[in-house]
Amino acid sequence: MNNLENRVVMITGASSGFGKEIAKMCVAKKAKVVLGARREDKLQELCAELGQDQATYQVTDVTSKEDLHSLARHGIDTFGQIDSLINNAGVMPLSLLQKGRTEEWDQMIDVNIKGVLYGIDSVYAHMLERESGQIINISSVAGKRVMPGSSVYSATKFAVRAISEGLRLESAGKIQVTCIYPGAFTTELAFSIKDESMMEALIARGLGDIAQPAERVAEATIYALEQDPGVAVNEIVIRPTAQEA
Length: 245
Description:
Layout: E1 8-12, H1 17-28, E2 32-37, H2 40-50, E3 55-59, H3 65-79, E4 84-87, H4 102-130, E5 134-138, H5 151-170, E6 176-182, E7 185-186, H6 196-205, H7 207-210, E8 212-213, H8 215-225, E9 235-238
Parallel strand pairs: 1-2, 1-4, 2-3, 4-5, 5-6, 6-9, 7-8
Helix pairs in contact: 1-8, 3-4, 4-5
């Protein structure tokens, strides 16, 4: 396994959930983290906890290519390089297609697909020049199956799967690529659901009752990060044991 000491890890969606827990575990293993998210107060709080020698942040909207490039430059200026990127930011405003909530569709496409692409673009040339790097994209089990109400969300997460595989093929021998598919875990993701009927349907399925801590997905991410440069864990599907689908 690869030692994470002094590795520089850039994380989007770092103010809560998986991103926050990944950042904490990286620093516990003596890595340095470059944190991006929209909520500055949460980023300031996390960086204060992690220590300024180990963590830096920049307010980042992943729907902005300029913001992500600026975050990557900030990380390189601060720590000298970006060794790993965790494309974690995402939204999940589920709804039936017949509801026609097109603004939410646009939001999912912008955050979940374009945000991943912009994140890759912000570090790709840097990693290829160094012939070394690692990109981990957080998809979802919805990127492997569709349920009523998840049509657009699943489409965006299927896209993350395709992007990850294309990136793996195009960067073979230089960049380690991993796509992670979490199931029901405790994060703020469900708060992005504004359709009350869809939220009621999810509650009726009991997903909240079986959801496991976000730390479990962070641990899986650390496992991928710690692989020797000659090996890439290409896919990780992780669900609560009690989750059927």
